[in-house]
């Protein structure tokens, strides 16, 4: 035994004497993680979160979250002598006088954008592959919660510098609070410590941004990861991969090196963006005052869809009995997003209700093999993209020489028309891909080699695909729709007829598929 | 799975194919060198960061293609940091890819579900312990506990009362009174009609009495936009026309939709546009909404001139300015 081994052994026994961790560690150091590029998306979100904690802590050392009025006397000449809040002045100080301060600000902002993008793409991966199915519904809900909190956290974060752009964002948030029936103006006055903008809001959201929400994030991310760990990762279908096993690389050393290395890569790329790509240059916007605004006011991208919905809303307001209800704010700002996010959170339960499938699933679906789910996902995505585009309608109008009215009317119609079209097209595409899979298994791969037969006929040579590929294309389940009889065996009508009819109808649409190849099909082909 | 039709069989995990570095010591040596080079590049990145920190002054600008005129200090500090982090990651991953075992391992999944007897035991234990506490039997305790827990929830709500004052009439009143002079923002200079040419726009605020201080809260409600047209261009009823003065019309600058500053005036069409959500108001028709999500015109301020010939408010706003709220009556 070398000296080094002896020291390591001593440390290990010291810790194990006090924690009994050796058994757990032994088991988990060899834990198997499946390998696929799409499993890195959640990792990017996790690593961006760590980058946000590190860079954010740096910024707190100089940032002064106060709306107290100061006169700027810093190093940035164009704003010299201007009245502004201490929050804005200290953000200028970080940007111009603190060494590495601007870099850290930019890293922090880029990391926030990457964090949100990674969450969204990770969510899409989980959705389209069916990874949310039993037993992972809790983790899906936690994920939807993290997405929602991420949007709020990001908004609060870019509101802190109190520049003209972010102040405008706060103004809009205040209008949404104020629009709530009954309690709106009271809630707004409590949140802002009086009338807008007041001097309380930025100190308050600072506490929420740096303490409350990061704390909740840490707790939720911990549970999210513990569940992944305990439930083991899902895996893509393929030879040797079953519902009962997990195939991949052990935590130590391969996965540790890859995941640890990937953290540094994400950090490195974020730092690179922070170094070369200017983001949120608040010194160009000037300090916030409610009487001014800059053209092309845009929120960050993850808020853009919400802004786009508000922009395309028709001018609806009800005045009755001495009261006002602003549907033009409530519907796009609260009701539609509320329905979307609730529906998203409940989706695993809705799907399991439709399919009647209560079993565990650890093998992922190929999106084409769940046409209805895939189509619904693309439909929702289309809705969001139309909303997001409309959120940038002014920018699109100036860049493509269109009028805002044209884009707005396009969006108002497209938000209703395009999603259903996306559903139908996607579903047809999925079924076509299933048909292509079937052809591939039955007739093999086109080689591109032409043969001239003795008769003069030209034929293309087809090569049978490998058994591995054939397995991949046929391993999925094809379940018949739910059989929900209207009457039971004794001829008595069941309760909840309408509910069952709806369920049977969706279930039927859900089970639509091109029959996969069976051994019988192959035998039949051989006979010909 | 439909059982009648026989499915194609799972061929099982494909045989493992060795990498060059697994069998060829030369290739392994090469891989090792590659990993080391990547780690050294990271070290160089840190050296770049340190040298930038000490040797490049913060106000050095260099011209770079694509990036344009760039602050060299920020750039090289960032590039150094980026390289020092990125190449550690690349090194670790190259190490894992080329030299660490690449044979896939199979692990069995365990069932999450507890055995039936454990589940039954669990239910029995809960029932038993709850029974011991008398949760089911002692309804007096249960109800009084429910009451007190419910009441405890009220205290934080009450204790948060001082987050802010009640709105009272704060949302409905502005600083404008009959006779308040309109002054320029910025500059605080009173304005005569002849200061404004036809087609001109001015941002104004109410004049401050001596000793008063203007807060952002005031600006958020008081900001007013003056626009001068030819009097014949207006398309107003008699009352609204009497609120204008020699073709000068005054509107609240705070959008009736969500409170942004309605700052974009199109001279050709005489439209005011809010840059936040593109609500468009027609100046000639008392800021009627002609496009976008806003549901109400911008409130119009009645103006006239005082004895010294300066523009003043003829009367306060007749309706609340800014976004809607529940208590708003029209």
Automatic annotation (TrEMBL), chain A:
<keyword id="KW-1003">Cell membrane</keyword>
<protein>
    <submittedName>
        <fullName>Unannotated protein</fullName>
    </submittedName>
</protein>
<feature type="transmembrane region" description="Helical">
    <location>
        <begin position="409"/>
        <end position="426"/>
    </location>
</feature>
<feature type="domain" description="Cytochrome b/b6 N-terminal region profile">
    <location>
        <begin position="11"/>
        <end position="237"/>
    </location>
</feature>
<dbReference type="GO" id="GO:0009055">
    <property type="term" value="F:electron transfer activity"/>
</dbReference>
<feature type="transmembrane region" description="Helical">
    <location>
        <begin position="262"/>
        <end position="284"/>
    </location>
</feature>
<dbReference type="Pfam" id="PF13631">
    <property type="entry name" value="Cytochrom_B_N_2"/>
</dbReference>
<feature type="transmembrane region" description="Helical">
    <location>
        <begin position="329"/>
        <end position="350"/>
    </location>
</feature>
<dbReference type="InterPro" id="IPR027387">
    <property type="entry name" value="Cytb/b6-like_sf"/>
</dbReference>
<keyword id="KW-1133">Transmembrane helix</keyword>
<feature type="transmembrane region" description="Helical">
    <location>
        <begin position="208"/>
        <end position="230"/>
    </location>
</feature>
<feature type="transmembrane region" description="Helical">
    <location>
        <begin position="172"/>
        <end position="196"/>
    </location>
</feature>
<feature type="transmembrane region" description="Helical">
    <location>
        <begin position="370"/>
        <end position="389"/>
    </location>
</feature>
<dbReference type="InterPro" id="IPR005797">
    <property type="entry name" value="Cyt_b/b6_N"/>
</dbReference>
<keyword id="KW-1278">Translocase</keyword>
<feature type="transmembrane region" description="Helical">
    <location>
        <begin position="140"/>
        <end position="160"/>
    </location>
</feature>
<feature type="transmembrane region" description="Helical">
    <location>
        <begin position="44"/>
        <end position="63"/>
    </location>
</feature>
<keyword id="KW-0813">Transport</keyword>
<dbReference type="GO" id="GO:0005886">
    <property type="term" value="C:plasma membrane"/>
</dbReference>
<dbReference type="GO" id="GO:0022904">
    <property type="term" value="P:respiratory electron transport chain"/>
</dbReference>
<dbReference type="GO" id="GO:0046872">
    <property type="term" value="F:metal ion binding"/>
</dbReference>
<keyword id="KW-0408">Iron</keyword>
UniProtKB/TrEMBL annotation, chain B:
<protein>
    <recommendedName>
        <fullName>Rieske iron-sulfur protein</fullName>
    </recommendedName>
</protein>
<feature type="transmembrane region" description="Helical">
    <location>
        <begin position="76"/>
        <end position="96"/>
    </location>
</feature>
<dbReference type="GO" id="GO:0016491">
    <property type="term" value="F:oxidoreductase activity"/>
</dbReference>
<keyword id="KW-0408">Iron</keyword>
<keyword id="KW-0411">Iron-sulfur</keyword>
<keyword id="KW-0249">Electron transport</keyword>
<keyword id="KW-1133">Transmembrane helix</keyword>
<dbReference type="GO" id="GO:0046872">
    <property type="term" value="F:metal ion binding"/>
</dbReference>
<dbReference type="InterPro" id="IPR036922">
    <property type="entry name" value="Rieske_2Fe-2S_sf"/>
</dbReference>
<keyword id="KW-0812">Transmembrane</keyword>
<dbReference type="InterPro" id="IPR005805">
    <property type="entry name" value="Rieske_Fe-S_prot_C"/>
</dbReference>
<keyword id="KW-0479">Metal-binding</keyword>
<keyword id="KW-0560">Oxidoreductase</keyword>
<feature type="transmembrane region" description="Helical">
    <location>
        <begin position="35"/>
        <end position="56"/>
    </location>
</feature>
<dbReference type="InterPro" id="IPR017941">
    <property type="entry name" value="Rieske_2Fe-2S"/>
</dbReference>
<feature type="domain" description="Rieske">
    <location>
        <begin position="221"/>
        <end position="312"/>
    </location>
</feature>
<keyword id="KW-0679">Respiratory chain</keyword>
<keyword id="KW-0472">Membrane</keyword>
<keyword id="KW-0001">2Fe-2S</keyword>
<keyword id="KW-1003">Cell membrane</keyword>
<dbReference type="GO" id="GO:0005886">
    <property type="term" value="C:plasma membrane"/>
</dbReference>
<dbReference type="InterPro" id="IPR045603">
    <property type="entry name" value="QcrA_N"/>
</dbReference>
